[in-house]
Amino acid sequence: MGFCIAHEAVADALRKVQIPFGVSSIAQAAGVASLDPVVEAEAFARCELLVGERNRVLAGLRTAGFAPSESEANFIWLRLGERTADFAVACEAVGLAVRPFVGEGVRVSIGLPEANDRFLATAVTWLGSRA
Q: Ranges for the Aminotransferase class I/classII large domain (predicted)?
């Protein structure tokens, strides 16, 4: 999120290539609010929690025998190939939503510790049932 102060001709050129509806007014308000030191501290604390949880989930998956890709995002990628749909069904059966890309793998969003614990338990059980 950002803004531009420019000569009118430059601003007109930028408008021609900008993404329509790139940042909503709600997102802009959130961005402005995040400049408040208290809100900023909360945002950093949430980021730290997310990074810690992502690292914990990655380590748990590796320990179980999966080979997740490295991640710097709020999600991880599990390459499962032809087993992708089966894994997604197993997750759905216990109320977990993953984003399957059939024949390739699943994208798993990192959530709160309790949800991540449920995901890890489901993944370990699923992998064990395939052994």
A: 1-122
